[in-house]
Write a structure and sequence with these properties.
single chain, about 140 residues, Jelly Rolls, 5-stranded antiparallel β-sheet, about 0% helix
Length: about 140
């Protein structure tokens, strides 16, 4: 049996600090997950400014709660990656991501009250800071 928690993080919400593509959200209370269970995290949706100038590079959403993986030879805490041919709207518009099947990633942090999010392209360049970003995360325990 699994339990699921959803967290909606916005770069412009009260308690969020940083810039729209690299922000920290502080929760009202510390979330303590059962240390005897295995926990996974996934992105259910995300919105961010389309890169300017327009590029069609892969976009990575990173979260400090996720376990490390190797991306392009670098250790990153990636919880979601678009394909390089991911269609994007005109530059300076908002790109919305809604994965058909979430990719679940092992969590390494089980007690936290802050969550750090980074949204950057495959070259490690942050997406523009023109408009607020949002990320909906899901956390689940697995047997």
């Amino acid at each position: 049996m699994s339990s699921i928690t959803q967290l909606i993080l916005n770069s412009d919400s009260v308690g969020a600090t940083g810039v729209p593509s690299n922000f920290t959200t502080t929760l009202a209370n510390t979330l303590n997950l059962n240390a005897f269970a295995h926990w996974e995290i996934a992105v259910l949706s995300a919105s961010y400014s389309t890169p300017n100038p327009y590029t069609n590079k892969a976009i990575y959403v990173e979260c400090d709660l996720a376990d490390y993986s190797f991306v392009g030879g670098n250790r990153k805490r990636v919880v979601f990656k678009t394909n390089q041919d991911h269609p994007t709207p005109l530059e300076n518009e908002i790109t919305h991501i809604l994965p058909k099947t979430p990719t679940w990633v092992k969590m390494t942090t089980l007690a936290f009250n802050t969550i750090n999010i980074k949204i950057e392209d495959s070259d490690g360049v942050a997406v523009p800071n023109l408009k607020p970003s949002s990320v909906t995360l899901s956390i689940r325990s697995v047997a």
